[in-house]
Design brief:
Length: 297
């Protein structure tokens, strides 16, 4: 059975780009007769704010995007992330890292296109022995990293076609749990998608570069890889990526039915006379013409 999800981080309001991804995921799930779950990705409690969560929830409802079941919050799932990390550590896929950001900065550690350090594996042991137990995770004062596979990770994105990413060059051994105890998004998302039985992931193009890491983690944990579709980013008329705050403001200040019409237009749904119609009418029409593999131009 199709099971999709929308997984916003409540560190800001919903913007047109996230509305496009949410609408595409919602339509895919409805057309497939499946479920569309809502997970609040507040694993980084410092960055996330409850008022953003409430506004995201009310914005989804305002746009007619009703999710199935209870809202799941990452902030209440720490134990699950710990269990998966223990498994990775004892199978030799994870190791302790004592490098600080300032150390990496001082040594002019290279960065990738997203500005992240490509970790030069300074703390990686020659050989990682399996069968080790991770000491009490809560007390650790260092980070834990995943030993990235040197082979390219191959996967298919349903909208963008075959992808090949060499994680060891794009990111190096990436962080699973930070020094401050916070689990990395990459780790939490893989655990949650598996435990929630997610079969299809529809999300913004900005996450495409992180997908190969998630697939490496899934393999190491013995999880199936879901189907991926990354929606193109929403740009302003000059082709620049929309600024999150300006776009969020615009979404808030514009009637929901117009926002939804804009989102559906970006998804190549021709609403004809239904542009600006009540959201449920637009969604009902969009559901009647939407094909799960519809290619977005
Ligand atoms: N939490 C991420 C965001 O709001 C989305 C992650 C995902 O869909 O995998 O950008």
């Amino acid at each position: 059975m199709y099971r999709g999800r929308f997984a916003p981080t409540p560190s800001g309001d919903l913007h047109l780009g996230s509305l496009v991804a949410a609408t595409a995921g919602f339509l895919d799930a409805r057309v497939s007769g499946g479920q569309w779950l809502l997970r609040i990705e507040d694993v980084d409690v410092q960055r996330c704010k409850p008022h953003f969560e409430s506004s995201i929830l009310s914005d989804l409802e305002r746009h007619g995007l009703h999710w199935d079941g209870e809202v799941v919050r990452q902030s209440s799932r720490t134990k699950l992330y710990e269990d998966a990390l223990k498994k990775l550590y004892s199978s030799g896929h994870a190791y302790s890292c004592f490098c600080s950001r300032s150390k990496l900065e001082k040594m002019h550690c290279p960065r990738n296109a997203e500005g992240e350090f490509v970790y030069p594996a300074l703390c990686r042991p020659e050989r990682i022995e399996g069968g080790r137990d991770l000491p009490d995770i809560g007390t650790l004062k260092h980070s834990l990293r995943f030993r990235a596979d040197v082979l390219p990770t191959l996967f298919n994105d349903e909208w963008h076609g075959p992808q090949s990413v060499r994680v060891s060059e794009e990111a190096g051994d990436f962080v699973l749990r930070r020094t401050d105890g916070c689990f990395a998004y990459t780790h939490a998302v893989v655990v949650d998608d598996f435990l929630q039985g997610i079969t299809h992931i529809v999300r913004g193009m900005d996450i495409l570069p992180l997908t190969a890491r998630q697939i490496q983690l899934q393999k190491a944990l013995g999880f199936d890889t879901p189907v991926y579709r990354h929606c193109r980013l929403v740009c302003d008329p000059d082709g620049q990526k929309l600024s999150k705050s300006a776009s969020a403001r615009a979404l808030r200040e514009t009637p929901a039915q117009l926002n939804l019409s804009n989102a559906l237009k970006l998804l190549d749904v021709d609403l004809g006379e239904l542009v600006g119609a009540p959201v449920l009418e637009q969604l009902s029409y969009a559901t009647s013409v939407w094909r799960p593999k519809m290619k977005i131009s």
